[in-house]
Amino acid sequence: LINIACWIVGLSLMLTVVLGLHDQSNGVYIPVFWRAMYSALSRVAFGLGLTWIIISCWYGYGGPINKFMSWHIWVPFGRLTYCGYLIHIPVMMLVLGQSTDTVFFTTFLEAFITRVVSVIAVTFLVATFWSALFEISFGKVKFI
């Protein structure tokens, strides 16, 4: 009973954070107090919901979510995303620093394709080599 209640609270917190600004994105004005509360508490609330999922899966109460997240196919993706996290700032500085012209915002799609997609592609290309050169090879080293 406690497990089910904690799952409901955790998922509710996470859904509230994800869908909390839906009205504002549709043009409905949200008062300053509620925007401040969202800004102050949204990361904590999402973290608490995620914490419950991790704790529940660790102690064997995760059910199908635990089975899904325990698949071995997630191991290389986890390594790749961690390497991408480590190197994305230098890659962003390199890729976006190559631009010599003035940046104008024309449309969302144009900005997304020219700025975001190119940085993500280069980041994960470099992360693949970074993981192969350092993370996997150092993971094979046996310490006495």
UniProtKB/TrEMBL annotation:
Key words, A-Z: Membrane, Signal, Transmembrane, Transmembrane helix
InterPro entries the record matches: O2_lipid_transport_reg (IPR052728)
Signal peptide start and end residues: 1-20
Transmembrane feature ranges: 44-61, 82-100, 112-134
Superkingdom to which the source organism belongs: Eukaryota
Full protein name: Acyltransferase 3 domain-containing protein
